[in-house]
């Protein structure tokens, strides 16, 4: 645990150095007589709750900073472990270089069915996307050391009955990529990577989640050229955008104005050494709770990984359904409500749950039937089946 706290504090120190705030934190800690690192830990926990969008952008700058200090080369998150590295019989932290191993987006097949059922009911994306999840070393080590990468390991964890709780410094980044040569894609405006297939891919959207608070922090970013970027729920950024609130258009699938960056965010980008292409990514929103103070569900969804569900999406509620049963198998296919209850799904097709989790997802007559994986979908979805060498995400 001590090594995890040290890594977390190092990460937080890096983030605050990016904003130029480290010296102020040092002064405060010295006056209070406490450790500067303890003070940074406390401050960033408070920031995650009270300055959500600022925290989201600090994390964005941290994970997208060039890993080798040479501008448009790989970002830090691209050096982390993918599902391919994690969910196989011999998980291994990636060496150099680590190629991208994308797979079909989890909701893509379901999305095709919804398109047939209710055409025009949600924003469209011009090119088919591929998905890749990357996790930092702390997250990778926790999964591997606790045997959470195989279905047998999950069955053993269920039998043990010990709750799954990730370390404080855990981070996961989910990227959705489209072919860089897709029609309408100006590659100079995108972060580009090369897959193990030798093809060039452009990053169209990304989620960043961290264990800064017990139910994780949630931030979703979209490229400003994404069609329908602010549809249904609008776009909300109180720190990084010159226009903090963008209302959704009544006509779906339209192009929204560029998300011009605030002076504060431009300073963060400059100090982090981010390439100019990152200027074209927009924070759609941050989420730190299931509901607001009135009990209304907080919605947050991305037009690519959650397309077809944006009007009901909640990152937290969906990920709270990440769970497995006593046999080590996932207890929900993808978190969506299917069949679709009329009261929850306005279009009558499967949609995302939102608001507080339903205890019936996990309990039957006060007996546990599903063990949560601390909001991490990759564990039940990607775990290696019995008798196989690689999981479905590998």
Description of the molecule:
The chain has a domain at 51-290. Strand 5 and strand 6 form a beta hairpin. The longest helix has 18 residues, at 2-19. The chain has helices spanning 2-19, 22-32, 36-50, 52-64, 83-86, 108-117, 137-145, 151-160, 263-272, 315-320, 378-382; strands at residues 81-82, 103-104, 130-135, 171-179, 192-194, 200-210, 217-223, 235-236, 245-246, 281-287, 323-324, 363-364, 367-368, 371-372. The strands form 4 sheets. Strands 1, 2, 3, 4, 5, 6, 7 and 10 form an 8-stranded antiparallel β-sheet that branches. Strands 8-9 form a two-stranded antiparallel ribbon. Strands 11-14 form a two-stranded antiparallel ribbon. Helix 1 (2-19) packs across helix 4 and helix 2 (22-32) crosses helix 3. Mean pLDDT is 84; it is low at 16-41 and 113-127. It is 28% helix and 15% strand. The protein has 11 helices and 14 strands. The protein is of the alpha+beta class and 394 residues long. Keywords: Signal.
Keywords:
394 residues, alpha+beta, eight-stranded antiparallel β-sheet, 28% helix, 15% strand, signal, Cytochrome P460
Outline:
The chain is an alpha+beta fold and 394 residues long. Helices cover 28% and strands 15% of the residues. Residues 16-41 and 113-127 have low confidence and may be disordered.
């Amino acid at each position: 645990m001590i090594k995890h706290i040290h890594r977390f504090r190092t990460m937080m120190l890096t983030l605050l150095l990016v904003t130029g705030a480290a010296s102020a934190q040092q002064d405060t800690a010295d006056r209070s007589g406490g450790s500067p690192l303890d003070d940074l830990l406390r401050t960033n926990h408070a920031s995650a709750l009270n300055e959500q969008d600022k925290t989201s952008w600090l994390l964005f700058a941290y994970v997208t900073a060039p890993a080798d200090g040479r501008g448009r080369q790989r970002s830090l998150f691209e050096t982390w472990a993918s599902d391919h590295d994690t969910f196989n019989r011999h998980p291994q932290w990636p060496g150099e270089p680590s190629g991208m191993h994308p797979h079909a987006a989890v909701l893509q097949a379901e999305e095709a069915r919804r398109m047939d059922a209710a055409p025009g009911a949600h924003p469209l994306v011009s090119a088919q996307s591929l998905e890749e999840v990357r996790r930092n070393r702390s997250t990778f080590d926790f999964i591997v050391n606790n045997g959470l990468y195989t279905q047998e390991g999950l069955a053993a964890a269920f039998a043990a009955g010990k709750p799954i709780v990730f370390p404080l410094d855990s981070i996961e980044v989910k990227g959705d990529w489209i072919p860089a040569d897709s029609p309408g894609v100006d590659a100079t405006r995108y972060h580009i990577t090369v897959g193990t297939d030798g093809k060039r891919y452009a990053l169209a959207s990304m989620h960043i989640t961290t264990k800064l608070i017990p139910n994780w922090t949630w931030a979703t970013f979209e490229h400003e050229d994404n069609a329908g970027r602010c549809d249904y729920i609008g776009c909300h950024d109180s720190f990084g955008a010159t226009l903090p609130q963008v209302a959704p258009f009544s006509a779906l699938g339209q192009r929204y104005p560029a998300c011009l960056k605030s002076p504060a965010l431009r300073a963060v980008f400059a100090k982090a050494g981010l390439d100019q292409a990152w200027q074209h990514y927009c924070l759609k929103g941050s989420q730190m709770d299931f509901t607001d103070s009135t009990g209304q569900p907080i919605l947050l969804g991305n037009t690519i990984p959650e397309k077809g569900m944006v009007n009901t999406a909640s990152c937290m509620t969906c990920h709270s359904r990440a769970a497995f049963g006593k046999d080590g198998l996932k207890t929900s296919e993808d978190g969506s409500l299917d069949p679709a209850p009329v009261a929850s799904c306005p279009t009558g097709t499967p949609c995302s749950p939102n608001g507080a989790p339903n205890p019936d997802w996990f309990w039957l007559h006060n007996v546990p039937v599903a063990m949560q994986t601390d909001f991490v979908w990759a564990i039940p979805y990607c775990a290696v089946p019995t008798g196989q060498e690689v999981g479905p995400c590998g």
